[in-house]
Amino acid sequence: MLSRLSSTASRYTVRSTTGLRRTLLQKRLYTEKKPEENVPKGFEGFFGKSNKQKPATEKPKPTNNANSNKPNDQQKPPEMPNNMNLILGTTVGTYFLYKAVAPSDNARELTWQSFRTQLLDKGLVERLEVLNRNRVRVHLRNDANSLGVSPATSFYFSIGSVEAFERSLDEAQKELGIPSNERLPVAYHDEISIGQTVLHFAPTLLIIGVIYYMTKKGPGGAGGGIFGVGKSKAKMFNQENQVSVKFKDVAGADEAKLEIMEFVNFLKNPQIYEKLGATIPKGAILSGPPGTGKTLLAKATAGEAGVPFYSVSGSEFVEMFVGVGPSRVRDLFATAKKNSPCIIFVDEIDAIGKARGKGGQMGGNDERESTLNQLLVEMDGFDSNQHVVVLAGTNRPDVLDPALMRPGRFDRHISIDRPDIGGRADIIRVHLKPIKTKVDTEQLARKLAALTPGFSGADLHNICNEAALIAARHLKEEVEEKDFEDAIERVIAGLEKKSRVLSPEEKKTVAYHEAGHAVAGWYLEHADPLLKVSVIPRGSAALGYAQYLPKDQYLYSKKQLLDRMCMTLGGRVSEQIFFDSITTGAQDDLQKVTKIAYAQVTTYGMNDKVGPLSFSDPSGEQQFQKPFSEQTGTLIDNEARTLITDAYARTLTLLTEKKGDIEKVAQLLLEKEVLTREDMENLLGRRPFVEHTVYDEYVRRPATQSEEAPPDFPKANDDGTVQ
Ligand code: ADP
């Protein structure tokens, strides 16, 4: 096989054993002496035309394909793109291997017939050499030159078997009348080609290569190869780079910000504290429901602190190798100490910080436990004058090991709750900034905050984004108020299912069901104020819904819970009043009611017979065992059932009395599909109670009042409800 590197680096050609010349680069320049020059006269039959008939600079013909129409070789090759280098490198590598395996440059392959007619019959052959029992090398006589063949050129041909070759050679020489003492000498050799040998080892080499690559890269991707797997994967941030979040981007959460700010101060000005004999706390756990801004707050700390900030996720300590977790913890702390003062932030610390000694037999836990132990040891190990502060975030502070929480480790516990209405308005203001809208953002933020009780910061961010997406879908130039309302509805109830067509009977059932909820809520004193009722199918299961505006309320009285249960049962009761049979549509309502009933009996101690006991088990310690006896279990079941049946009976009485109202609401619903509070007021008159909706209080009050601390807002339910 032939391959030549001509005067410019880009000119490569490879010739296979059959003489086929392949162009490696699309264009090539081919000016040097070509192998065809060695071809003897009269060999055109299988080598193409003799060179004598063509100038050397002409386009070379592939040796066994005289008619190939290759591009003009004199053209300059086009500029190579940079990523061609890799291809080129690979090709050159392959070429060298190929060359090593292939016969030498001047070797020409023949067939037996060509050998016979072109060489043997003309008496040009001096001797033959059988190589590896499958190939015959032909040595020409010295005087072959005079006949137009260079003796430097070696020819070879392949044979099926040595016996068949010997037979054919014998016959040929017999036919030529060569006496037996002058017959061609045939030698037999075995040659070991380096290339062939390398090829045999190729799979092994490949495997070794892959293993080497893996050790270089390291399964944990930590760099430093397989031996670097124990290195911590914490990312380091400086306030100058990457972190653009500042405390001003974290709306609300003022108490949490204050606490964190204190840590930042410890690190910036430790002398103020140390002067008075105080030791600097070692760590703080940020806990709270998902999406309340724990990570955001930690990032903002990085942005504000002005000290290096190492961020790592708890799960990054866990790897399939034993001992990696503790080793990464050690490494993290070692790096942090070198760069002190600094902050380490461990997100989702529950991945390693779960209470030890649970389910240890399941395997895999030991690794987690030793990682946690190492963390405890490290936190104990560094002195507070080393100025390394560890912050950790978790949604599940209840499952954390008590040893983590003791003073001296995570001294402070900062809990971040879902924002209240003022907090929500602040968060919405932050996320409204990038949104293009002409609506008065101040008023909008208040309104959206009032409509989104219980939403977390992440939900609110989602709503602002969703509104922009909805506006973009309708090709609007800017986001309108309605888009925000649609976004809330979408987040609460799911996407409108226009494709879901209900049969008229189903639609009627849904309308009476929702009207039942709405009317029950209308006449129950402690039920939340209604916002809208809809019979447009949404999400995966909801065929209709009634949306209420609950208050930001942290305590509920028994009366309130009862009214809520009755309102939730309203749909089912209405179905019973208006139709002979009941449907499966109330499943979700019944689940909610059951939950409220059981919670009253088992968690809130609100049942007289069961007494003031609470069996709630948030950390899931009693997974397989009930913390009460069979007898108490039966009592709980009976009491919960009684609660629900009583609520049902109460709702039935109420709705039977208000049957006419349900009829009116349902008919209007069937006509308009969506009813607002105003529609309800027009139909049924105002609610027979003094109503203080969040909406009225927060949105309709003068905008000049500061809502950071709405003075009377949290105490606003003077309708007899317990705060
Ligand atoms: P987690 O508490 O689960 O760590 P994140 O901090 O990741 O929650 O918050 C998710 C997103 O929610 C943030 O990227 C941000 O857009 C939004 N967010 C949450 N809380 C706030 C807040 N107080 N101010 C502004 N945005 C917030």
TrEMBL record:
Chain ranges of the AAA+ ATPase domain: 280-420
PROSITE patterns per record: AAA
Superkingdom field: Eukaryota
GO biological process: mitochondrial protein processing; protein catabolic process
InterPro entries xrefs: AAA+_ATPase, AAA_lid_3, ATP-dep_Zn_Metalloprotease, ATPase_AAA_core, ATPase_AAA_CS, FtsH, P-loop_NTPase, Pept_M41_FtsH_extracell
Gene3D superfamilies: 1.10.8.60, 3.40.1690.20, P-loop containing nucleotide triphosphate hydrolases, Peptidase M41
MF terms (GO), sorted A to Z: ATP binding; ATP hydrolysis activity; ATP-dependent peptidase activity; metalloendopeptidase activity; zinc ion binding
Annotated stretches, region: Disordered: 31-85, 700-723
Compositionally biased tracts (Polar residues): 62-75
GO cellular component, one term: m-AAA complex
Assigned protein family: In the N-terminal section; belongs to the AAA ATPase family.
Its membrane topology: Multi-pass membrane protein
Protein keywords: ATP-binding, Hydrolase, Membrane, Metal-binding, Metalloprotease, Mitochondrion, Nucleotide-binding, Protease, Transmembrane, Transmembrane helix, Zinc
Organismal lineage: Eukaryota, Fungi, Fungi incertae sedis, Mucoromycota, Mucoromycotina
Species per Swiss-Prot/TrEMBL record: Mucor saturninus
Chief location: mitochondrion
The keyword Translocase belongs to this UniProt entry's keyword annotation: no
Subcellular location: Mitochondrion membrane
Cofactors required: Zn(2+)
Stored SUPFAM superfamilies: FtsH protease domain-like, P-loop containing nucleoside triphosphate hydrolases
KW Mitochondrion (keyword) present: yes
Name recorded for this polypeptide: AAA+ ATPase domain-containing protein
